[in-house]
Design goal:
The protein is an all-alpha fold and about 80 residues long. Helices cover about 55% and strands about 0% of the residues. Helix 1 packs antiparallel against helix 2 and helix 1 crosses helix 4. The mean pLDDT is about 95.
Length: about 80
């Protein structure tokens, strides 16, 4: 799942190193349009519903954090 997520992230922002970056939001590397694109793709690909309540910086600071969010939503 992480591999597919990294593909999605790279499609949205090919200029970022998602495998090593851990401060995507804190360092303003992703803007709101990027987040909307990522959420939309993840909702479709992973069959989850990322809600407004999930849009916390800690859920989007790294690929691992996004993957953890998706895994939590898939379990519910």
């Amino acid at each position: 799942m992480l591999e597919r997520l990294l593909e999605i992230l790279s499609e949205v922002r090919p200029d970022l190193d998602f495998e090593n970056e851990t401060r995507l939001i804190d360092d303003d590397l992703l803007d709101s349009f990027d987040i909307i694109s990522i959420v939309s793709e993840c909702n479709d690909v992973f069959d989850v519903e990322i809600s407004v309540d999930d849009l916390e910086p800690e859920n989007f600071n790294s690929a691992e954090a996004i993957a953890a969010l998706i895994e939590r939503l898939q379990e519910d």
